[in-house]
Amino acid sequence: MDLTNAACKLLLFFLLVFCTSYQCCATGINADQTAWLSVNVSENPPRKIPKTMFGISFEEINHAGAGGLWAELVSNRGFEAGGQNTPSNISPWSILGDESLIFVSTDRSSCFDRNRIALRMEVLCNTDGENICPAAGVGVYNPGFWGMNIEQGKTYKVTFYVRSLQPVELSVSLIGSNGLQKLATADIIDDNVTNWTKKEILLQAAGTDPNSRLQLTTRKKGTIWIDQVSAMPLSTHKGHGFRQDLFDMLAELKPGFIRFPGGSFVEGEWLVNAFRWKETVGAWEERPGHFGDVWQYWTDDGLGYFEFLQLAEDLGALPVWVFNNGISHNNQVDSSVILPFVQDILDAIEFARGDPTSTWGSVRAEMGHAEPFDLRYVAVGNQDCGNKNYRGNYMKFYTAIKGAYPDIKIISNCDGSTRQLDHPADLYDFHVYTNANSMFSMAHNFDHTSRSGPKAFVSEYAVTGNDAGRGSLLKALAEAAFLLGLESNSDVVDMASNAPLFVNTNDWRFNPDAIVFDSSKVYGTPTYWMQHFFKESNGAILLNSKLQANSSSSLIASAISWKNPDNNRSYLRIKEIGVIDPTLVLYFLPMLKYKFLIQVVNFGSNRVSLKVSVDGLDKNSIEAAGSTITTLMSSNAMAENSFSEPKKVAPTTSQLENASNRMNVVLAPYSLTSINLLRKSNIVQVAGCNADLFMSHRNHKLVVLHRTMKLENRREVKVYVRN
């Protein structure tokens, strides 16, 4: 056994364990079942789980972005949602004042070439004379996406463009849900707006109302044109436009990647309504927006290609961009004329990765990001493999992208889990939506997949139907079992993400989802909390484990080890100049505490007695003090969270009294359990080799001499010691 393998004994490990079969008719706790789980941390060879193993998949569905993660408060801010023909529908804008006081229409007079529609207000009343305006004025208001969340003390930036042949006097206000309470207001007075003029004001709220609206009113007779109205809270994440509470929900999952922007949203029912990246970059006022005809709502595309790349960077996750390959749900481009689409995608990659002096890299730089984004993965389409032109189109994209960017990993839509692909790919996309029993059984889906060839990207998985409710515990447990199987097969599965991610409670286009929100509140479903149990798996080491049970119930086991980093560590840097070529960097971490984790899914109605044995550790090496047990459970397998009970089903943690490397743990029915064992040791970490090495100070008696470092009973290594 070499030094690397010996050192693996002392890695921290994270055990993801078993599931019993689901019994839909069970009504109580039956006789206990017993299972034995043994893990040998000294068995070799270790296998590293990809750093990208678990991530998130974002689609513009359920108003996940528009009216959700993207913090813009105004819906249809450019008045383009009603189409390019005028007059047009301005919904959800509404008029303040009757027909004798104001006439509102649309025309094509905007100063923005790609957004020609503007709002025209002909004010018929005045401050005096026969037709006097109401004291509150007349005009228009926008309720946002089912109400704007305005919070006392917070500041909101309102931007709009205005034009008039007469001087203008406009009041810009944030109004409460009763239409009377002024939460914030400011007056705009300008004698010269004959040309389109940009106005920006800051409004600080004097009150709180989650169902507020933005009003633009006047009491001065004349005609006023208004366009591109925006209201953004200044409290977005890093000022990047992301609603902070929703961003935090994502960040807490520690995703290895984020896939965007879909999903069927990428394809469109018709190509004319597909996501076109070039129309989503540059100044927000110049973005035309588009109608997402799959999920049947308009988006102004404030959350565009650039913002998705920025989101990935802010999350510390790798971006996975899904692009349209000339195929929608109802029409497609023939491979003989696909090259303009191919060039469009090469331009997009240059936008993300190109030098700031390049054609498209300069556009990114002008948007405030001179440094390239870390784009390494692209997916050619979404669920398009069965279309007649897919393979022909795919090969045109593949050849062009690999020719220009050979390091980029390309994802095919065709399933390679049961047979080899007939075309080159780095990964293949795999989607599964099914009931709880089927999802549980699919934990073994990749057991017999060929160990050569492209790896799987399970970009969409979810339990649906009656088992799922609107996000049940049962759904989460079945999905956890599936993830255990993916983790065990992480030599052929590179990435996995649940879908859909978000839902605005006012627009359940797809059910269920991981995170539910409205204008002011948010909660995670059990599926969201289940994913927390896997967030330490990225980059961990898969260990050998064996599971036995005294019943016919199906059991699944997975064991991993993971490192718990200590940001306050002191260290010696040592360069090795002796028998091994690579430079060794040694970190000395006195009395470092680190964790062993055992995670268990009980998918049935039986209580299970789990007898755990961990081989390869010193006797009594586990500290009871500081060891904990965390459980996701409920007496009702169909239990769900809600705004009134946001953590009805959420992880709870308590101290584990009998913590040791030989112990018994009782698992509640319908539960996901994490057993956190604490160990204390002096260790030295050796980095700079092909793997991280951990050597125990107690076990190997590290001695540092003038130019020689000896590991007792091991080889001698010459070193150069520097403070």
From TrEMBL:
InterPro entries: Alpha-L-AF_C (IPR010720), ASD1_cat (IPR055235), Galactose-bd-like_sf (IPR008979), GH (IPR017853), Glyco_hydro_b (IPR013780), Glycosyl_Hydrolase_51 (IPR051563). It comes from the Eukaryota. One of its GO terms (molecular function) is alpha-L-arabinofuranosidase activity. Residues 1-26 form the signal peptide. Its EC number is 3.2.1.55. One of its GO terms (biological process) is L-arabinose metabolic process. It is found in: Secreted, Extracellular space, Extracellular matrix. It holds the Pfam family ASD1_dom. It is an enzyme of class 3 (hydrolase). PANTHER family: ALPHA-L-ARABINOFURANOSIDASE 1. This is non-reducing end alpha-L-arabinofuranosidase. It comes from Sesamum angolense.
